[in-house]
Each structure stands twice: as C-alpha cells, then as structure tokens.
Amino acid sequence: MKHTILSAVTAATLVLTAGAAAAQEKVTYLFPAPDFLPAFAPFQLAKGNGYFDEAGLDVTFQVGKGGADVATQVALGNAELGGGIGDTPIIVRANGLEIRGVALLGGRGLTQLAWREDAGITGPQDLKGKSIGVLSFQDTTYYNLLGVLASAGLTKNDVDIQAVGPGGIIQLTIAGNLDAMSGVPEWIAAIEAAGVPMDQQPVDSVFPAMAQAIIASDDTIEERPEVVQGFVDAVLRAV
Q: Alpha-carbon distance 161 to 136, whole Å?
C-alpha cells in the first residue's frame, strides 16, 4: 500500500511538472549587440535568477545587427521582443515597421560620442573629415550620429563613417585608424584600458537621444500582452 501511494504521488508530481513546463510561453529576445555587454546585465540576471521562469516564460536570447535590424526582425515576427534605444521605434515606424517601445531602461541617453584625445576634436563641430566608427548602418547609434552631425551643420558626406562592429570600433580606435566613435560607454572603457586617452560627450547633450529600450511589435502587444508584461516585469526586477 505504501509503495502504491508513493508511486501515485510521484506520478502526480511528474504530471504537474510536465504541465508547468508545457504552460511556459516560448519567447525569443533579440539583442542589438553581443549579449555579454554590461548594458545587458539585467536581462542575463533575469534569466539566471529564474525571473523569466517565474513569469511563465521560456526565453531564448539571440543577437541581431543593431537596433534598426532588431526592430525589423521584431516587426516581421522573427522575434517576440528585442532591444534597441528609445529612439528606435520613432526612426523605423516612419518606414512602416509597426513596433513600439514597451520599456525604457534609464533616464538619460545611452549613446556616447567619443574621440581620441590626439585627434584634434573638441566637439561635433570638429568631426569634419574624421573617421568615425559605428556598430552598423542598421543601428540606432548610427542614426544618433547623423543627428549629432546635423547639430553641427554636417552630413554623413562630410565624414568617413565606418560600420565595423563593436570589436572593430575598439581595435581600430586603439590602432589610430578611427578618430572617433558613436556607441556605448563600455567601448570607451575598453579603448582606454589599452592606454589610449579618450574624450567623450553624451549624445543627448546635443541631440535628444534616449536610453536603452525593450521593443515589441503591435501584433505581439495586442495578441500576447501577458508575455510582454511578464518579460518587462522580470527585467525591471533584475534592474
């Protein structure tokens, strides 16, 4: 009798466990840059600490090619959620991509304009003729750079913009092949760690750039609001 009761309890536990696992919503989140960057720590903490699991979400991380590319993939339904900057939906929605920001993770702009101290640059007005690195031409930091140039009466034709990825920005700036960059603070730290002095200016001091954001498509927001809410709550808990 005891053996029978234990077997029944074990079977019931297995059924309940299987049911809980089956009930978890599968979610793909697309990062705009390598997922090991410090800016994405809250997402990794939310996953590592089980916050997504507690929200009933089975989250898979993937990496895109910049915020605008992520927005495209999210709009097309290739990922339920993705990362960008608060500016990203404003930029891409005008091109017919029906996505929205569902969380803004910070009160200041993320993008930094930085340059080598020996490049003869003191601000945006000195960027003419300079080589500037960006993550990609599909990234919001590139569009932020265009805004910075416009604030100084310049266009992309007045500078040499190179889309070389995060590793390329760091290595080429260290080598002196890039004079400046438009990107995130940790890239500046990596360059300075190699012994190259840098100056920097927050992009939002000259152009109204925003903080890191979580984005979702209109369809996902309408059809799976509990997924969006659960994901955002888990990340904010990690923050």
A: 10
